[in-house]
C-alpha cells in the first residue's frame, strides 16, 4: 500500500503542489512538552525548492510553536491528503529551519513564492524543510471534500499592519517570543520586511 521515495519529483511533486492545504507536526524534546499540529494553506505559500527541500511561508498568528520546536530540535513532518481524485497521503519527514527576515538567505528564498504577496499576511519567517524520509500511504479513509477558495480574513486582518505595528502585536501575544512550553520562539523585535521590491 505505502511506498518510500528517494526524492520529491514527478507525480509526487505534482500531487504535493496541487493540494490547497497541508499539515505540519512538531514537538519539543521534553516528553511532557506540547505536540503541535498546524494546518497550512493560502495558495502560493508553498514551494518545492529541489528534490529534497521544500519551504513554506510562515505568516502572523497568535502562536509560534513550530518555530520554537524547530529552533530547539529541527524535527518536522509535513502531510498532504487527497480530498479529491485518487486517494493518497504523502508525508515528508525531515529537518526544518525557520529563516527570519534578517537572514541573508531571505530574499533568495522569497523569490520561490512569486504568487504570494508577503506584505498582506504579516510574513514573519520562511520554514525550510530538508526531507529525510518521503512516504505515501493509501488515504482510503480521507473523505472527499471540495475546495472553494482561500479565506480572505487573514489577509484583510494583517494587510493593514506595518512592520512596527506587527512587532507590537507580537509583543502582546503570550506565545510568540516564547512557546507554550517556554522555548524561544520568534525573535523580537521583528526586523523590517526585506526583499519585497
From TrEMBL:
Species, as recorded: Streptomyces montanisoli
A Pfam family reported for this protein in Swiss-Prot or TrEMBL: PNPOx_N
PANTHER family: PYRIDOXAMINE PHOSPHATE OXIDASE FAMILY PROTEIN (AFU_ORTHOLOGUE AFUA_6G11440) (PTHR39336)
Name the UniProt record assigns to this protein: Pyridoxamine 5'-phosphate oxidase family protein
Sequence ranges assigned to domain Pyridoxamine 5'-phosphate oxidase N-terminal in this UniProt record: 10-138
Domain of life where this protein originates: Bacteria
